[in-house]
Design goal:
Cathepsin B, Chain A; six-stranded antiparallel beta sheet; 3 domains; about 20% helix; alpha+beta
Length: about 500
Amino acid sequence: MTQQHQPEAPEPLAKKRKLETAEDATDNKGAQTIPMYPAREKENPNLYLETVHRELLEPDAARLCSVTLADTNVYACLSCGEYLQGRGKATPAYAHSLDTDHRLFLRTTDSVIYVLPEGSLCKSLLLHDIKQAYNPFYSQTDLNGLDTLELHETRPGIYHGPGLIPIHKLGRDGALNAIFHALSHVRILRSKLLQLPNDRDYYAGLPPLLQELSLLFRKLWRRGLRNHVSAVQAAARMSHTSLGVFAQEKKLVPALVLAFLLDTLHRQLGGSRTKPAPISMDTADEKIELPRCAKHTIISTGMQGVLLIQTQKIQELTDAQAPQLRFRDDPNAEATLVPYKILALTLPPIPVFAGGDPGAVSAQLCVTLTTLLERYSGNQFEQLGNTRRRYKLLFLPEKTLIFSIQRTVEGEAHRNRVIVQLPITIDMSPLLVKPQGPALFDLFTVIMQDPLTDDWFAYTKRMVGTQARWFKVCAGMEARQVPASELFVGEANIAFYERQTS
């Protein structure tokens, strides 16, 4: 009788200790410290809750370590609100827990709470409001009701609420404040950035500028009464990304900053550049398709249109019998399809008055937005050196249309202060080469400049009950309700329009 083979008993699995990540186990000098055991969850998740002081927490402050001034791997002490780096044995947060007997520390990147110096996790449900304050989370249901959230009137005419939280003043004139506020009201961009942290693995691999703007937008639209929001880190990331060109301490041109942010966000969201495409003049008036883009984003699909630019050279002719200089148009004109995210509008020149101030004279003039848009009707030529151009509007953005009004010209000392009358609703179909029904856009945000102080501010539209009201948001100041008539007497620089949906 054959002996049956007995199966061998499985060997016990070796217990492996998962060491703490190198990022959390480094001190302020970057040296590797002694590894710790993995963070363990306490049997009682509500331990040390008596050490939490909500009145001392500052979720909207700049998240920099108070010891090393580093902005990576930063934790917030829930007892005193101080920001400290790391949780390893040689880090400021670990030393702070030993010196002050403060136990609970929140990691600012994902709101995970640790108990120091033990290094265990704290998953108490009673701290959910603090986690939401440091890293607001938005579901699709929350996004659908953002524009109808209730606003609080703290004083007569002064409102506070989601989307109207003031930002600490950045730079000399608050240009960045106005741009950040305006972009936070662009619905398609706001919805995208608010939902980025929902996929934590994807969010962790995003560029720092995209993460900071996402955090800033989430704080601006957070519920509850907050005094101010800090955007210092977002401004610093933008300065670093632009190699110092758009540093907050410089005098910035909002239109250039806005163009840089839109292009950068498009690339960092995974989009590719849409290059201008030359076409034949024979097909310029026929059916033209949008230039191909390898990878689209919400910016290229919802905030980008296409222009047809026709360029014609001017030739110099000399008559042999009568030597007089003459000019004629080159019959071989060139046509190019150029994508745009911002439509630049040129103001009429300032009239010359003897002994008058050009700035004061231009402030008395007024022009309509429809008149400025004639530049893109294809009927006006602009001469640049020995060439002249005309522009035709082929395609409009699907969601958001942005106009930039050029008030300063290089080489001129005075700013063109001609007042532009912005319609609340505008139909862009008459400017299209082949319109297909009405193309109605509604005004929702305007960036203006104060003629006396040169400070920048933003006007934005919000729904209060069933009525649309306008609010003026200045740098570091609370939002003030204003009549819509103020939009027609200020120096508008950038106007944001949103396409009406049927």
